[in-house]
Specification:
- The longest helix is centred in the middle third of the chain and has 15 residues, at 86-100.
- By secondary structure, the protein is mostly helical.
- Strands 1-2 form a two-stranded parallel ribbon.
- Helices cover 53% and strands 7% of the residues.
- Helix 2 (50-61) runs parallel beside helix 6 and helix 3 (72-81) runs antiparallel to helix 4 (86-100).
- The chain has helices at 18-30, 50-61, 72-81, 86-100, 110-115, 122-128, 130-141; strands spanning 2-6, 65-69.
- The radius of gyration is 17 Å and the shape is globular.
Length: 142
């Protein structure tokens, strides 16, 4: 059983796939004039808790993935002990605080508006990248 300990609490979020971000940027750069002065919020297709996403990862990978929440400070300390740079750890801790506070629980259809395609779901993203996730699990277990 693979697991993830992260300080995201019960807040909801809408992860957006990097391919959706890239397609959105390409659409903006292809025809920038209509977008001058506009602000876009690129989100995934649904806002859910980390418990939902552990199920989506489990379905996509065919193995049990678990999420365990911990307080931000011990998580931050662990990241520092693992050798991550302080500026990155500070950024991640701020993101965790914002996630816990529900600041990422907002949805937009901007990916669809910009690209004409709906954003990938987490399950679709994980299935498309299953080899990467499987390789990471094998490396941790060796």
């Amino acid at each position: 059983m693979a697991g993830s300990t992260i300080a995201f609490g019960e807040g909801k979020t809408l992860p957006v796939a990097v391919t959706d971000v890239a397609r959105s940027i390409a659409a903006l750069l292809t025809n920038p004039q209509p977008h001058v002065g506009k602000i876009y919020h690129l989100t995934g297709p649904q806002s859910e808790s980390m418990h939902f996403y552990e199920q989506e990862y489990s379905k996509a990978l065919g193995r049990t993935i678990t999420f365990q929440d911990i307080p931000v400070e011990p998580w931050r300390d662990g990241l520092l002990k693992s050798g991550l740079p302080v500026h990155l750890v500070n950024h991640l801790a701020t993101m965790a605080d914002m996630h816990r506070a529900g600041r990422f629980d907002r949805i937009s259809d901007d990916v669809l508006t910009l690209t004409g395609q709906r954003p990938l779901s987490v399950q679709e993203f994980v299935r498309k990248n299953a080899a990467t996730f499987t390789a990471s699990a094998k490396e941790r277990n060796s």
